[in-house]
UniProtKB/TrEMBL annotation:
GO terms for molecular function: NAD binding; phosphoglycerate dehydrogenase activity. Pfam families: 2-Hacid_dh (PF00389), 2-Hacid_dh_C (PF02826). The keyword Heme does not apply. Belongs to the D-isomer specific 2-hydroxyacid dehydrogenase family. PANTHER family: FORMATE DEHYDROGENASE 1, HYDROXYPYRUVATE REDUCTASE. The gene is serA. This is D-3-phosphoglycerate dehydrogenase. The keyword Protein biosynthesis does not apply. Gene3D superfamilies: 3.30.70.260, NAD(P)-binding Rossmann-like Domain. It comes from the Bacteria. Keywords: NAD, Oxidoreductase. InterPro entries: ACT-like_dom_sf, ACT_dom, D-isomer_2_OHA_DH_cat_dom, D-isomer_DH_CS1, D-isomer_DH_NAD-bd, NAD(P)-bd_dom_sf. Catalyzes the reversible oxidation of 3-phospho-D-glycerate to 3-phosphonooxypyruvate, the first step of the phosphorylated L-serine biosynthesis pathway. Also catalyzes the reversible oxidation of 2-hydroxyglutarate to 2-oxoglutarate. SUPFAM superfamilies: ACT-like, Formate/glycerate dehydrogenase catalytic domain-like, NAD(P)-binding Rossmann-fold domains.
Length: 390
């Protein structure tokens, strides 16, 4: 039986991917082989000895100690792009909410509940509606910081709304560049983007290099009256700097998905409770993708969409047993493991070895089932981190 411990609300369609006869799944599972979670913070949570893998049903992995887990041979997965459309649509809502007095005007209408005579309603509405005039998105410039799964979708949406789009992403992957519309103008630096944009939307991961990317210095470059949208992470924007820029009349509005006490009850701030990915569709996409990736890793040792281990996937050779092991990415380890197999007369049918930064992963299909002693001998090779026979 494989054991999967869940955190957070995981869509049933994802949980259904674990066949009941082979998996125990639940929030109180002891000795888990895997964790399946969303935003649960794992820093500070004890790492069970049994843990082989963590699947983050979502994009951001700042809630997982990715490097530390890698050193322990724990493979961390995420689900790239699975919730991007949900975030894109909320970014659009954020742009509209910041441009039209939607909430204030709705509240005004509700405040008219005391009017007894229906004939009084229309004159009141027509008299006061000028308080709620706004601006259109068409023709304005949107600056997108981070042009990955979400940023590229936001760009397409904005172009379709008749906006001009400029983007900044100095570490854009080749795949992401292929996805991007050629109508997005590339900015050489953040300051140039901020100086040109009427709306600025942040779509970068929360890593050391993006901490407080929006700060007093960068906000000094922002176009007067611009709207800043942060559906990425709290740490990317220095909230104190945002408050100062709003008070100084520079920044026009701040829309964010990460409320903090200092951001509440401010007329120029629209804050939401981290609901970017909270749609039925996105929750299902993420849960199904995360569960599929976990099953393939636990049962076959295949790794797809990991954030700490290399991508590696090998068809099972019929009638063989499979040994999978992780190791520090130093020379000679695979050779020593193959010597162990040769000494024990275990014949290799097929194998694959991939590395990523400090870590490597190997899949070896062998003719005869290796005994526990062979697995132990592989585990004893210097720099081997973890071994499984599956
Ligand atoms: N509000 C919410 O519920 C959600 C928030 N997110 C957040 O959005 C982030 C982005 O998500 P995806 O687009 O799916 O990820 P992604 O990995 O597809 O895209 C991130 C992009 O940021 C770029 N980037 C990295 N460092 C940069 C820098 N210093 N300057 C400019 N660009 C930089 C990367 O090259 C990449 O193209 C996630 O890491 C997560 O923190 C994601 C999903 C839901
Ligand atoms: O995928 C992400 O990075 C998110 O922020 C979504 O978080 P959630 O799964 O809704 O808790």
């Amino acid at each position: 039986m494989y054991k999967v411990r869940t955190y957070n609300k995981i869509a049933l369609s994802g949980l259904d991917r674990f066949p009941r006869q082979a998996y125990e799944v639940g929030s109180d599972i002891a000795h888990p082989d895997a964790f399946l979670l969303r935003s649960q913070k794992l820093q500070g949570i004890e790492v069970p000895q049994s843990l082989l893998a963590v699947a983050r049903a979502g994009a951001g992995v700042n809630n997982v100690p990715v490097a530390e887990y890698g050193k322990l041979g724990i493979v961390v997965f995420n689900t790239p792009g699975a919730n991007a459309n949900a975030v894109k649509e909320l970014v659009m809502a954020g742009m509209l909410l910041s441009s039209r007095a939607i909430v204030d005007s709705m509240n005004f209408v509700q405040s008219l509940g005391d009017l007894k005579d229906p004939a009084e309603m229309s004159p009141r509405v027509e008299k006061e509606k000028s308080r709620f005039a706004g601006n259109e998105l068409k023709g304005k410039t949107l600056g997108i910081v981070g042009l990955g799964a979400i940023g590229s979708m936001v760009a397409e949406m904005a172009l379709a709304m008749g906006m001009k789009v400029v983007g900044f992403d100095p570490v854009l992957s080749i795949d992401a560049a292929w996805r991007l519309s050629n109508e997005v103008s590339r900015m050489e630096n953040l300051q140039s983007l901020l100086a040109r944009s009427d709306y600025v939307s942040m779509h970068v991961p929360a890593v050391d290099g993006t901490r407080h990317m929006i700060n007093n210095d960068t906000l000094a470059a922002i176009k007067s009256g611009a709207v800043l949208l942060n559906f990425a992470r709290e740490t990317i924007v220095d909230s104190a700097a945002v408050l100062q820029s709003l008070a100084a009349g520079r920044l026009g509005k701040y829309v964010c998905d990460f409320p903090e006490p200092c951001l509440l009850a401010h007329p120029q701030i629209i804050a939401m409770p981290h609901i970017g990915a909270s749609t039925e569709e996105s929750e299902e996409n993420c849960a199904v993708m995360a569960a599929n990736q976990l099953v393939d890793y636990l049962e076959n040792g295949n790794i797809v969409n990991s954030v700490n281990f290399p991508t590696i996937s090998m068809e099972r050779s019929p009638g063989t047993s499979r040994i999978v092991f992780s190791n520090d990415n130093v020379s000679g380890v695979l050779g020593q493991v193959l010597s162990v197999l040769a000494e024990n007369k275990v014949n290799v049918v097929d194998m694959m070895n991939k590395s990523r930064a400090e870590l490597a992963f190997n899949i070896v299909d062998v003719e005869t089932p290796p005994g526990d002693d062979v697995a132990r001998a592989i585990g004893a090779v210097e720099h081997v981190i973890r071994v499984r026979v599956i």
